[in-house]
Design goal:
This protein is mostly helical and 315 residues long. The chain is built from 10 helices and 3 strands; from the N terminus they run E-H-H-E-H-H-H-E-H-H-H-H-H. Strands 2-1-3 form a 3-stranded mixed sheet. The protein is globular. It starts with 11 loop residues before the first strand and ends with a helix.
């Protein structure tokens, strides 16, 4: 029987993190605080960019989309994880499980290419500044965003289709805190080689293509920066890329560690720590990375606050 023939049977069980009640309580409080910071940080970033006219540029348009993605895929994972930790309800239906997987893969793959778009934007701004308004036109920016979501939708559709063709007759216990590819593959009693190979090639292509785009952009950026004579000019050019480089390193590091390996090498402890990091922690960190190290965002916050104070005084 494949996955869709199980929809009327008993639900799957998510038992990934810990059986200890004390640790569950600590994790639930920690994850709740992180999720609240994630929501406030990403919504705050979106609002600041929307309210401040000076931030209406392609770079911050991509940053808005990044905040939306971080907020979305944290919401796909964290509320269900909190329910599992705080209550005795650890079950999830087959359709619910595959829906969670679909949106997680879609959003994660889209983030890869939005990070690539941000790197391309920095490349054009530093290496071709005179042509920047023409190259990074609103039409080009929207095309890059649309393409990112379309690739994400293709990745998630193929992944879910491959998994849905498998037979599931083993234990219905998923040893993970959300429905991810490798833990679902472990439940199958049929040959998973074709599905695993397809998913591996797809995930590898997504990561590799986006990494090549980012790497080639930053090689060109570094080459251009080294040609700048003044140290202040070099510092200014590099500072515009520093936040993005930190975000890329953290995101891709955990993604590659988790997914670019055979499912048989899946480690319950190490991979869960990495999964917690990129599904729960990174969405909280990105607004901090892109605001604390960004003078333009900090200046925009001050302008918005002053504008609000002036409006209130006029009333």
């Amino acid at each position: 029987m494949n996955a869709w023939n199980h929809t009327n049977e008993a639900d799957l069980m998510l038992v990934g993190l810990t059986d200890s009640k004390e640790i569950q309580l600590v994790l639930s409080v920690l994850f709740l605080l992180i999720y609240m910071l994630t929501v406030l940080g990403n919504i705050g970033m979106i609002l600041i960019i929307h309210l401040d006219v000076q931030l209406h540029t392609p770079m911050y348009f991509f940053l808005t989309q990044l905040s939306f993605l971080d907020l979305s895929y944290s919401t796909v994972i964290t509320p269900k994880t909190l329910q599992n930790l705080l209550t005795s309800i650890k079950s999830i239906s087959f359709i619910g499980c595959f829906t969670q997987l679909y949106f997680f893969v879609l959003l994660a793959a889209a983030e890869c290419f939005i990070l690539s778009s941000m790197a391309y934007d920095r490349y054009v701004a530093i290496c071709n500044p005179l042509h920047y308004p023409v190259i990074m036109s609103p039409r080009r920016s929207y095309a890059l965003i649309t393409g990112s979501y379309m690739i994400g939708a293709m990745d998630s559709s193929v992944t879910v289709f491959c998994l849905s063709t498998l037979n599931f007759c083993h234990s219905k216990v998923i040893h993970h805190f959300f429905c991810d590819t490798f833990p679902i593959l472990a439940l199958s009693c049929s040959d998973t080689y074709a599905a695993e190979a397809t998913i591996f090639i797809l995930a590898g292509s997504t990561l590799l293509l986006s990494l090549i785009t980012i790497s080639s952009s930053y090689i060109s950026i570094l080459s251009t920066i080294l040609k700048i004579n003044s140290s202040s000019g070099k510092h200014k050019a590099f500072s515009t890329c520093a936040s993005h480089l930190i975000g890329v390193t953290v995101f891709y590091g955990t993604m590659i560690f988790t997914y670019l390996k055979p499912s048989k090498s899946y480690s319950l402890g190490k991979d869960q720590v990495a999964s917690v990091f990129y599904t729960i922690v990174i969405p909280m960190l990105n607004p901090l990375i892109y605001s604390l190290r960004n003078k333009e965002v900090k200046s925009a916050v001050m302008r918005v606050v002053k504008k609000r104070e002036c409006t209130q005084k006029l009333k």
